[in-house]
Amino acid sequence: MYLDDRQRELAEAMETQGRWPADSPWVRRAILDTVPRHQFAPDRLWTWDGHDQYVPVDRDRDQDAWTDLVYAGPEDSAIIQILDGLPSSSLSCVAVVADMLDSLILEPGQRILEVGTGAGWNAGLLASRAGTGLVTSVEVDADLAAAAGRRLAAAGLDVAVHAGDGNAGWPTGAPYDGAIATYAVDQVPWAWIEQTRPGGRIVFPWGRLGHVALTVADDGKSATGWVQGLGMFMPSRGVDQGREYHAIRGDGPPDRTVRVERGLRALTDVNLLFALRVSHPDIRIATEDTKESLAVRLHDGVSSWAGAVIDQAGTTAAYEGGPRRLLAEVEAGRRHWEERGSPGVWDFGMTVTNDGQSVWSGAAGAGPYTP
């Protein structure tokens, strides 16, 4: 059967890439056997048409194409909802789901808060480990919440699914032994920490590049932890995602030609990219490497953009538009990263209090990383 073949291929790819968490063998069993992904995929999924829009892929019209989206590569998500032309909910990619569940350090019998139910798959994985009636999941979209509740019930998994604002948690079920978010936040809601017991873990995607695991302090007045891995997640509903590069760039000529003092190939280094995410969070960086050249595109989601092409000879042609000098800002962030010893992704951590949050590298006492 084609679905079984694709599921096996995904499992093998996870194995080959070393993506199954060794410290949490239950995650592999749950994903492959107890709570299979396809049981939580709606009959209509969405895919990019390669040109200018997302198009539906319906299970009853093309079972194999639908299956290909459900069981794509370890780092491929499956889009389950489109709002205003953009993805608004998905089945998260298997590799990141496995990594985040491992980071939660979930034990049987623990009470867990999940925010961002989506299709219900992650809630089902949590329930398969925690046990009956111990997972509370909150979803901002009432229709998604209702559909997820039906899928969980059909799978025999007892999860309390509520329609509501995930950033507010679900206080009537608190305190929880742990919490996990399936959507990205820039600022960690204090409610998540307030509703998690001292010593509890909180795992969430931070911004556009990685996920963090915090441990609530003994006095409950703060939570501190480290970056655990990389991955892209959708933001919480209602967050302005900003304008895309092509919309800011437009079709007209650039405002200026820019002389680049140092090579931009360093922007393919994930450690530098993460550091720039910390120091310059509003600058979005994309690279495309081919045999002929490396293309770099920057934008701020508002009105400024920069583009550069580095050919095989190392020659760089760079241009900008808009009020900001994005290439100069990125160069300043790169120098700051080098001055701080070029910390890697896993050297970064975060401390959250009721007054705000601080991102640091090396140790919590080192002070904020931002220059």
TrEMBL record:
Domain of life: Bacteria
GO cellular component, one term: cytoplasm
Keywords: Cytoplasm, Methyltransferase, S-adenosyl-L-methionine, Transferase
Example of a GO biological process term: methylation
SUPFAM superfamilies: S-adenosyl-L-methionine-dependent methyltransferases
Any one GO MF annotation of this record: protein-L-isoaspartate (D-aspartate) O-methyltransferase activity
Enzyme class, spelled out: transferase
PANTHER family recorded: PROTEIN-L-ISOASPARTATE O-METHYLTRANSFERASE, PROTEIN-L-ISOASPARTATE(D-ASPARTATE) O-METHYLTRANSFERASE
Name of the protein in its database record: Protein-L-isoaspartate O-methyltransferase
Organism: Streptomyces venezuelae
Organismal lineage: Bacteria, Bacillati, Actinomycetota, Actinomycetes, Kitasatosporales
